[in-house]
Amino acid sequence: MSVRRQGYEWLGVISAQEQSEGRPYTLHGTPVCTPLSSTDTGCYIPAIPLQKPFDIMVGGIGTNVEIPGELRAFQFIVVDSIACWPPQAAVNIRINTTYYFADPTGRTGTNTNFGIPGRAAPFPSPNAQGVITMPALWNGVQPPLYILPGQAWGIDYTMVSNGGWNGNYDYTDEQGPNIADGQVPRAYVLYLLIDGADALIAMKLLQESIPVTEDNLNWYKRILIENQLWADVNQPSPETTAREWRFS
Question: Quick check: pTM over 0.70?
Answer without folding.
Answer: yes
